[in-house]
Known about the structure:
- The protein is an alpha/beta fold and 221 residues long.
- It has a single domain, classed as Dihydrofolate Reductase, subunit A (3-Layer(aba) Sandwich).
- The protein is 18% helix and 26% strand.
- The protein has helices spanning 37-40, 43-48, 63-68, 82-85, 136-146, 158-166, and strands at 4-12, 16-18, 75-81, 109-113, 121-122, 128-132, 151-154, 172-178, 186-187, 199-205, 211-217.
- The strands form 2 sheets. It has a 9-stranded mixed β-sheet. Strands 2-9 form a two-stranded antiparallel sheet.
- The protein binds NADP nicotinamide-adenine-dinucleotide phosphate.
- NADP nicotinamide-adenine-dinucleotide phosphate binds at residues 9-10, 17-18, 22, 27-28, 35, 81-84, 113-116, 133-135, 156-160, 163, 186.
- The site of NADP nicotinamide-adenine-dinucleotide phosphate (NAP) has 26 residues, from strand 1, strand 2, helix 4 and helix 6.
Amino acid sequence: MSLTRIHNLSISLDGFATGEPQSAEAPFGHAGERLHEWMFATHFWALQGASGSGADAGGSSGVDHAFAERHSVGIGAEIMGAHKFGPPGWQDDPDWTGWWGPNPPFHSPTFVLTHRPRPAMPMEGGTTFHFLDAGPADALEAARAAADGRDVRIGGGPTVVRDFLAAGLVDHMHLVQVPIVLGRGVRLWDGLEALEEAYDIEAVSSPSGVTHLTFSRKTVP
Ligand SMILES: NC(=O)c1ccc[n+]([C@@H]2O[C@H](COP(=O)([O-])OP(=O)(O)OC[C@H]3O[C@@H](n4cnc5c(N)ncnc54)[C@H](OP(=O)(O)O)[C@@H]3O)[C@@H](O)[C@H]2O)c1
């Protein structure tokens, strides 16, 4: 059965997954790169830029790496929000193809939720961006159909993740709580309540200072 999964979603102690304002120069607003420094230090991240097997790419291979590398395992499609795909106003730029260059790191059909869809955009390396104006359930159905039996990742940002959680469509969520206080931005938790009733939740502290939280949907006895 194809699962709906979230990985490496990094939030501040006060629950923000991005700062503000977002722009082409500052995709995470005033948060800068602080939400993902834990990941940039890992072997998983070093491999993203490495050629060949990347065995000597460097980076840490401890707890943070072990969680981070689960991001791509068994994934057949991704769903992301319009604000992850580009800065405000990207819909007015016909040449905008996302932040990631000609070979984006998704390597699978990738569905961008937007109220201003455009034709599908094939990229190098197996990523094709599809633009959808659809609710979470319909978007998930389209992504599952494209995922060839594998799992679907909800890639963020927080608005889209929150909508999928609220709709009860998430089977597994890996959050990374980073010990910073952002004070403003887009908060993951607003409007959600009592998630702990639907999920088994575990926490693992990393020596790097972040806390990995896993939410696994409770099975009905
Ligand atoms: N902390 C992390 O690990 C992490 C991970 C991923 C992304 N991010 C960051 O999060 C930020 C983006 O998050 P965000 O919460 O601002 O926005 P988002 O979730 O990426 O996108 C929300 C937008 O997507 C469109 N959308 C959402 N649902 C839709 C639907 N059902 N139908 C049609 N359109 C829909 C709407 O845009 P329109 O109305 O404009 O079309 C909506 O405003 C970026 O800064 C990104 O870098 C952080």
